Amino acid sequence: MKTTTFSALCALLVSLCFCVYAQAQDEYDVWPNKAPGVTENLPDKMRDQGAFSFVTKPTIRVFVPENKTSDACVILLPGGGYSVCGNDVAQAKYFADKGITCVLLKYRVPRPAKGTPIYWPAFQDAQRAIRLTRSLASKYGFNPERIGGMGGSAGGHLTTMCCTSSSIQSYEPIDEIDKLPTHLAFGIAKYPAYVLTDGLEGPNGPDKGNFADMSDAFKFDAKTCPMCFLHGDSDVYSPMGTIALYHKMRTMNIPCEIHIWAKAPHGFGKITDVNRDQVGFWQEAAWQWMKVMKFN
User: Fold this and answer.
1) CB burial of residue 64 (10 Å; 0-12, 13-18, 19+)
2) Using CA atoms, how far apart are residues 211 and 238, in angstroms rounded to an integer?
3) What angle do CA 52, 264, 249 make, to 5 degrees?
4) 6, 44, 58, 218: most buried, per Cβ within 10 A?
5) How far apart are CA 244 and CA 267, in angstroms?
6) What burial class does residue 278 get, using C-beta atoms within 10 Å of its C-beta: 0-12 exposed, 13-18 middle, 19+ buried?
């Protein structure tokens, strides 16, 4: 009897924990049926590290802060080379703990077939996710015109695409949600990849991006928003891409901030006691920029 009672109590505790977890997050399908070009929704596959290696059915998860301090919202666009999609739960919880509603996108991977830009399915998912997030603004109590994006590596590239190129219509409208705009109010791009012409699908060439042009994928349209860029000087995805983006936005008189750390590798490497004082505060740097821009 005691064993049965104890087992029942454990089951109840697990159930309660799950309820709290479920209340903290809500999940939505990005597309009502199938994503553009998808013929069958198949189960996700994951790597040991937690990144999604195969996704046909994109979703967003809304992380709701217990103590909301801002009417802004941050959409996280994970990295992974457009071959996998990271699962940036820790960063989502960071923003939620700070009092800001956070939305985590799981977009389609791996890369599409040759002939299609490597970012295109993810960009379609991101634009639809921005619209979907806008449609949820009243439900979660944030301002639909104070939605920003953040991502690193491929996610930094995707964030920059969304921040600079909302005039691109990446798919045909399918419902009322697609009447909503796709522009963002701000963006945080960490070590964005695929920015320069000598590295459109991988690390930059032997000149390390020093003499390459910027990709023409970025349209820098009228809705281009303020951004914060963070990069390492030893990144195989050249920081010269970040500098080119910053320079272009400066010529447009769009407020931007840029941080480039000496000897820091892609992803800032494993943060240790040696480099913690150098790059370990990148998240705080981004947070302080948001404070200056009055988004937190």
Assistant:
1) middle
2) 11
3) 80
4) 58
5) 19
6) middle
DSSP 206-241: TTTTTTPPBPTT----TT---EEEEEETT-SS-HHH
Residue 266 has pLDDT above 50, yes or no: yes
Contact 52, 82 (CB under 8 A): no
* Rounded-to-integer distance, Cα 244 and Cα 248, Å: 6
Give 272's contacts (C-beta < 8 A, 6+ positions apart).
none
Burial of 224 (0-12, 13-18, 19+ CB in 10 A): buried
Question: Under DSSP, is residue 85 helix (H, G, I), strand (E, B) or coil?
Answer: strand
- In terms of DSSP bridges, do strands 101-106 and 59-63 run parallel, antiparallel, or are they unpaired? antiparallel
Is residue 6 helix, strand or coil? helix
Task: Return the pLDDT at 278.
Answer: 82
Summarised one tens digit per residue, pLDDT across range 162-182 is: 999 999 999 999 999 999 999
> Do the strands 73-76 and 256-261 form a parallel or antiparallel pair, or are they unpaired?
unpaired
CA atoms within 13 A on the CB side of 75: 37
Is residue 155 within 8 A of residue 104, CB to CB? The reply is no
CA pair distance 104, 129, nearest whole angstrom: 9
- What is the token pair recorded at 229? 């860029």
- List phi, psi (to 5°) of 60: -120, 145
Q: Mind listing the pLDDT tens digit for each residue in 180-211?
A: 999 999 999 999 999 999 999 999 999 999 99
User: Tell me, what amino acid is at 15?
Assistant: S
Token pair in block for residue 62: 């809304």
Structure tokens at 289: 């920029």
Give every CB contact of residue 24 below 8 A, 6+ residues apart in sequence.
Answer: 63, 64, 66, 96
Q: Which CATH superfamily does the domain covering 27-292 fall into?
A: Alpha/Beta hydrolase fold, catalytic domain (3.40.50.1820)
Q: Is the per-residue pLDDT at 21 higher than 60? A: no
**Domain parsing of the chain, residue ranges:** 27-292
